[in-house]
Design brief:
The structure is a single chain. This protein has 109 residues and is of the alpha+beta class. The chain has a domain of 74 residues: Arc Repressor Mutant, subunit A (Orthogonal Bundle), CATH 1.10.10. Helix content is 38%, strand content 10%. A two-stranded antiparallel ribbon has the order 1-2. The chain is elongated, with a radius of gyration of 30 Å. It holds the Pfam family Ribosomal_S25.
Length: 109
């Protein structure tokens, strides 16, 4: 009977044993995203691109300027204020968290 008892112990279900965390291969390594190097000041080429290209954008937000012109978010907010004062864009929604602008169309205002 002794051999049968050892055989029964060997047949204990794995679900009854204490579990150890199982890691997939390579999950312990974290992927680090490259930090974007956006411009903090407007140089001549960026400002020319700003005043020329923004007139053709249908939706103008801080995020679109940051994405397309590779400028800083605070610089994009200042550019939006400047473009609004010059009349190149007009506000659609002015909320404290998100300002949405569109291109200003000729005399149809």
């Amino acid at each position: 009977m002794a051999p049968a008892a050892t055989g029964a112990k060997a047949c204990i279900s794995r679900s009854l044993l204490p579990r150890q965390p199982i890691y997939a291969e390579g999950t312990n390594t974290k992927r680090i995203k490259d930090k974007a190097q956006h411009a903090v000041l407007l140089d001549k080429t960026t400002s020319e691109k700003l005043y020329k290209d923004v007139q053709s954008y249908r939706l103008v937000t801080v995020a679109t300027l940051v994405d397309r012109l590779k400028i800083n978010g605070s610089l994009a907010r200042q550019c939006l204020k400047d473009l609004e004062e010059k009349g190149q864009i007009k506000p659609v929604v002015t909320h404290s968290k998100m300002k949405i602008y569109t291109r200003a169309v000729g005399a149809s205002d």
